[in-house]
Amino acid sequence: MILQNLKDLHSSMGKQGIGRYRFDYKHGKVKFDIFFFIDSKPNILLFGACGGNFSFEIDVDESFSINPNLPKETYKKLCALLCLKFDPSNRFSPAAFFFEFDQLLPKGASITQIARPEEIIVYHQSLEEAHKRWFCGWRDNNQRGQSVTSANLEKTRKLLGERVFQRCKLENISSCWTDDSSRATEICLT
Q1: Fewest Cβ atoms closer than 10 Å to its Cβ: which of 124, 127, 134, 183?
Q2: Residue 173 Cα distances to 51, 150, 158, 160, angstroms
């Protein structure tokens, strides 16, 4: 299934140098935080139910094609979230869900809606120290005679993107996080 309208958003993001974007989508009474990550291959759409403790990711290939078939557990949880009752003559169609989503996509990106790590982590509670939402710096593990952990690298990849993940892995650098928003710093990898 091709998400035709995602092309315009992708193009707008690319022109503005936005690699990670956040916007809202409402389906019925359920509001989703949508994150579109174009800084990874394949691109990723992250659907996070606001207040619903549920999220899922969809890979988007270079032709803006997705697989609308959801894993069985994701399908069941999405149906429950949307308060759908099983009806064999009128089954919930993920393809119809994604078609409607595509029709309501923003046409362009706004620099004010760049996805921030502290927003993304809400939907990745299994990450290392998920309560530490705010980025607060870098640690050069070479200077300490240590190695960056795989858990830290995974948190870096999910929250900061593939390019930063690769650099941290290559140079043995850990991203540092805090649960105190006043200690947050801008993300700069020199």
Answers
A1: 183
A2: 34, 11, 16, 13
